[in-house]
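Supplementary notes for students who missed Thursday's class. We covered one full example, reproduced here. Read the sequence, then the structure, then the short commentary at the end.
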Amino acid sequence: MRRSLTFPFILSLVFFDALLLYAQTATSTSAQSSNPQAKPSAAPEANVMVEELKKSSDAGKRARAAHELGKAQDASAIPALAGALSDPSEKVRREVILALAQMHRPETLDDLIKATQDAEEGNRVLAVQSLVGYYTGIIPTSGVSGFVKKEVKRAQAHFTPDTTRIAPGLSVEPNVITALDATLKDTRSARASRVAAKGLGILVARAAVPDLIKAAHSSDKPLSLEALNALSKIEDRSAGGELVDLLDSPDKDIMQQACVTIGILRTSQAAAKLQSIFESDTDQKSKEKALEGLAYLGAPISTPLFTKALGSDDKDIRTSAAEGLARIADPKTLPELEKAVMAERDADAKLAIEYAITALGKLDYLSEIVNDLSSKTWGGVAQPYLIELARIPGFLAKLYPYLQSPNAGVRKGLCTVLMFSGDRTSLDQLDRLSHDPSGDVAAQALEAKRAIRARLDVAATTPTTGSHQ
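Structure (token representation):
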């Protein structure tokens, strides 16, 4: 199995269906707001549940009413649900939060923000999850107890970085970020702070970077790990220098996650320390994470180290070595990479070496990497490699012929590559695919066009600071 890597080398695409739902919801809401007569009318059953939610003296019945209103997704019930956020019963408020989340409508956001201040810790956690879920489509359901317990176990167990991140160009309401940031800093609940840190990373919340840096130095280990993972997703390079001290953390998990995060943030001043960890640390995982961080940095000074590491007995070391050489892109290393690819027997490491050879300008393996996009096994690895390759000046034109592939999985995968790395020249290519016979390909092409246009708009109005990728 491919090792688990942090964005940008591996990314979650769970957001795509959610984005379509988000767009459809926004369109529907806009149409209703432009027509004052278009207020949704409540179904008779909803009227009964609303009355029970408002007037029943039985908390169990009020909770059941909120639950049923959420299942019905009847927007006319939103005002009643909002009012019930002040219900004296924690159980009722919990079901109200879940019901508002299931509505998936913009007018619920302020109510969910209010719920992040609920007196009960579990409800604050659910409110944060629901706000993030509005943008990702991953929302808590009626299995709330199991949902919360799963989060607790995740925090207590060995940390596994989560790679979910919203699509480029998707706008998040500033007050949502403000609410999550406030929850991150709220000292009442470590659990809610951890979930908020995770959510801020998923929503790519640049405004929260200073507070996430502080959280990365928290004495609460799960919070520190979540904050480091979030900073990896946000990719604000200005944060890297303030995390270098964590490479000396006595906690191995924090130090290892810091190695990767600092590498992703291209923190060049950490190169010597990362190399020292790789060469001197007796813990094999620490060595692997240090080299992974160095691979993200791609500093030319590491070329001899990467070249030597191509011969390691550890496939993860060989994989990172190849990825590092890909970023350095020194043509002098091509013979070593070609020798290594012929000798490599591990599929993960071989794909990484093929990626490196392609990054150096030799296209012998490009077709194989592109065709892997349709593979359930390798698509999640090939796609991030191609996203990086597509950022090399002049490389996009080499990908465009593959948009005519007879394989719909390849065409769809390339649309995602262009969503992250396409430029103005990609728009005409995607316009043709927006009429593709495959509905999945056509939808992904439209989403890629939206993301590229959003990126171009931002580039046209934002001064270059060098802090962001």
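Commentary. The mean pLDDT is 88. Residues 17 and 137 are 7 Å apart (CA to CA). If anything here is unclear, bring it to office hours.
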